[in-house]
Write a structure and sequence with these properties.
It is a single chain. With 132 residues, the protein is an alpha+beta fold. 39% of the residues lie in helices and 16% in strands. The protein has a three-stranded mixed beta sheet, with no helix packed on it. Strands 1-2 form a two-stranded antiparallel ribbon. Strand 3 and strand 4 form a beta hairpin. It is flat. The chain starts with 10 loop residues before the first helix and ends with a helix.
Length: 132
């Protein structure tokens, strides 16, 4: 896809794309940390610029799982709702059908279409609840 647009698949771009795929859901900082384990010379600015490019090309997408940095994941994955544990930070995914009653009600009552691919629900996971 990069070559089709006249762009090169540089080693840095390849490493960043691989890190997104390997990590699942990751912030630019987490991606940077992963990439630096294999190529110490890649800086955080390169990671941010490359993520923007990869998103423009439709290879990755991002969502906001908190007030911090966006979280990137592979594009083309099935849409999913993110379950974010406020205690341990673990991110789980569930089928967006779970949101159907809410999205239907919002559509019917407010004429509002929810982008379920960007929904994040915050709470406490089962493991953390048991530890408390």
């Amino acid at each position: 896809m990069l070559r089709e647009r006249g762009l090169r698949l540089t080693p840095q771009r390849q490493l960043i794309l691989e890190a997104v795929h390997d990590l699942g859901h990751a912030t630019p900082e987490q991606i940077h940390h992963s990439v630096r384990e294999r190529a110490a010379g890649v800086n955080i600015t390169t990671v941010y610029r490359t993520l923007e490019l990869l998103e423009e090309l439709g290879l990755v997408s991002h969502t906001h799982l908190s007030h911090g940095s966006p979280t990137y994941h592979r594009a083309g994955e099935d849409q999913h709702v993110h379950l974010v544990c406020r205690t341990c930070g673990e991110v789980d995914e569930v089928d967006p059908a779970i949101m159907e009653p809410v999205t239907t009600q919002l559509r019917d009552e407010r004429d509002f279409r929810v982008d379920v691919g960007h929904v994040s629900l915050f709470g406490v996971c089962g493991n953390c609840k048991e530890q408390a």
